[in-house]
Amino acid sequence: MVNAETSRTIVGIVGNVISFFLFLSPLPTFVKIGKARSVQSFKPDPYVATVLNCAMWVFYGLPFVHPDSLLVVTINGVGFLIEITYVTIFFIFSNWAMRKKITIALMVELVFFLIVVFITMTFLHSTKARSMLIGILCIIFNVLMYASPLTVMRRVISTKSVKYMPFFLSLANFSNGLIWFSYAFIKFDPYVLVPNGLGALSGLIQLILYATYYRTTKWDDDEKPPEIQLPRANLAGQA
């Protein structure tokens, strides 16, 4: 019989795979940016925010903060590098005003992260206390990121159309939240469990809306899509 630790490892590896592909989901956007050599109307905000989110989860998963969380570190470390790449592409193809905005945002995030690390390592001397502080911060950031689909879900309800709420992205977000929720449940970790439980719920609601309004969707309508992005990997790995 497979023991709990082995089960948790297997679930975590599956979670890493799902989260990895979620991190890669914006690639078509950056192909468009590269071909046009312009960011057009795309916004860097979700990618800049995810940089800090991934950095916080990497810190959370380190042995001296929350032991036995290697799989949280691996996927968020990869996610951090991917998001930095996205932000770099935005920086290259943006005007000077946008570059200034990106630079300021990254500097603020860096200062905030260093302050959190300093407080954690200087004043908190147990992994329990460190896990609590960083875990609560990670939950707050993840909940804020999960607020982003609310606009598109409201639009789906008002227009009775799911044309601009991609089914497979909604399914992937649901699967991602569910797998990391399971990971956190096997060896109880409330700081991974709570945000991913909310993520799974958000994804489930999107799927229900998709099933509800699929038949009323006018797929040939040329209406311009809203500039809204669903969260990609809200981890513990946008677990």
TrEMBL record:
Q: Sorted alphabetically, which PANTHER family does this protein's record hold? A: BIDIRECTIONAL SUGAR TRANSPORTER SWEET5, RAG1-ACTIVATING PROTEIN 1
Q: What is this protein called?
A: Bidirectional sugar transporter SWEET
Q: Where in the cell is it found?
A: Cell membrane; Endomembrane system
Q: Is Zinc included in the keywords of this UniProt record?
A: no
Q: What does this protein do?
A: Mediates both low-affinity uptake and efflux of sugar across the membrane.
Please name the InterPro entries in this protein's record.
Answer: SWEET, SWEET_rpt
Decide whether keyword Transmembrane is in the record.
yes
Which Pfam families has this protein been placed in? MtN3_slv
